[in-house]
Specification:
Layout (H helix, E strand, L loop, with lengths): L3 H7 L4 H14 L3 E6 L12 E7 L6 E6 L7 H15 L7 E7 L3 H6 L25 H10 L2 E2 L2 E2 L1 H14 L2 H10 L17 H13 L5 E9 L7 E4 L7 H10 L22 H11 L3 E9 L4 H15 L7 H15 L4 H24 L1
Parallel strand pairs: 3-4, 3-7, 7-9
Antiparallel strand pairs: 1-2, 2-4, 5-6, 8-9
The structure holds zinc ion.
Zinc ion binds next to loops.
């Protein structure tokens, strides 16, 4: 049972406090801690930012659990909570041949600035792609981005954007429009879901971290913690492996049918075909180095799809504020964005912790028996 004090203890309220808590606790517990300072960290007024890693267990362990937080900035603190929870409750229970690697604030810029994207408005979770074969925008994808980018000095023009999207949904289909918003794009640098034209600093740093830690591991479990998709305070399991593959069968064995039914939590009934996912890149590195993987993205649901689309508009506007944007509007929208992806509701946090604890426990159990 998880009590209320425990629940409040792992949920931090902002990035710098979370970073300190993560590094201090890991050090106290004897982990090997590394800090990868972001190139823009020096210009930060709040004590800097970067990707931090904590490794527990022997360097030659053949089994490894990797838990990643902060691929999208406003979602960081739920992932931090999972990492702190593991450290507090499970770090002393490791088997001799097991190691755990915690990667904190994968998109360090976004985490420090409460933005989904990186310093270049790139969605890090669309940036691990083959840039040479990135699809050029179609007429529909350009129209969708045009709608999403409608804005004024006080914020995104949400009403107009929604009307445009509704019109496009009638002309094409809802599924086609959702696909355009979610799958990622490479032609509009100030748009939503922009994958960039080259690997971001965070992308390169995460690859370096994984390559350094995966050399001896042969069985690697990976969880990338997110928020925003699915029912309020409930976890959604996203496995990106082929149906019928050993990876997805293992996920089914560890977590049950919910890990093998990827489409259930998408309003359009089908999961968009995302390009450039971080978790896939981490799996690819593991496989290249001779390891098998069981990999999951866990989403803790927050609000309705329409509300979360507004969140994407807020994020885009904050990253690309029009000339003369009011500082009061920026502060207000930033606060709303944060609450959409990280609710302050104690019931949400209690459920996230309870479900997260179960997922961690099932993962460790699966890894142990693997
Ligand atoms: Zn996310």
């Amino acid at each position: 049972m998880i009590n209320q004090n425990e629940a409040y203890g792992v949920f931090c309220e902002e990035y710098s406090g979370a970073r300190t808590e993560f590094c201090d606790l890991a050090q106290k517990l004897g982990a090997e801690v590394h800090r990868f300072e972001h190139p823009l960290s020096e210009t930060s007024q709040d004590g800097g930012f970067g990707i931090d890693t904590a490794r527990f267990g022997p360097p030659d362990a053949t089994k490894l659990l990797v838990m990643i937080s902060g691929t999208h900035g406003p979602e960081l603190l739920a992932g931090t909570a999972m990492q702190l929870h593991w450290m507090r409750n499970y770090s002393s229970e490791r088997e001799d041949d097991e190691a755990v690697l915690l990667i904190h604030a994968a998109n360090a810029y976004g985490c420090a600035h409460v933005r989904r994207t990186t310093e270049n408005n790139v969605d890090l979770n669309r940036n691990f792609c083959d840039f040479a074969s990135s699809p050029k925008g179609t007429e529909l994808s350009r129209s969708v981005q045009h709608a999403l980018c409608r804005s004024s000095k006080t914020g995104p023009n949400t009403v107009r954007a929604m009307l445009d999207l509704r019109y496009l949904s009638v002309r094409h289909s809802k599924q086609a429009v959702v696909e355009e918003i979610a799958s990622g794009q490479s032609f509009r640098p100030d748009g939503i879901g922009y994958g960039g034209t080259e690997p971001e600093w965070a992308n390169k740093t995460i690859k370096l971290i994984c390559e350094a830690h995966f050399t001896k591991a042969r069985k690697i479990a990976i969880i990338d913690w997110h928020t925003g998709i699915g029912s309020y305070a409930e976890p959604s399991f996203l496995c990106f492996d082929e149906i019928g593959s050993p990876e997805i069968e293992r996920a089914r064995l560890w977590f049950g049918e919910r890990a093998a039914n990827n489409n259930a939590d998408f309003a359009s009934g089908e999961r968009p075909s995302y390009r450039g996912l971080l978790v896939r890149a981490v799996q690819d590195i593991a496989k290249r180095l001779g390891a098998e993987t069981t990999a999951l993205v866990i989403e803790f649901g927050t609000y309705s799809n329409t509300k979360m689309l507004t969140g994407l508009l807020y994020d885009r506007w904050l990253q690309n504020p029009p000339k003369g944007a009011k500082s009061s509007a920026i502060a207000e929208i930033e606060s709303q964005l944060s609450k959409l992806f990280y609710p302050t509701d104690p019931k949400w946090r209690e459920s996230v912790l309870r479900n997260g604890d179960q997922i961690i426990s099932e993962t460790l159990n699966g890894l142990g028996k693997w």
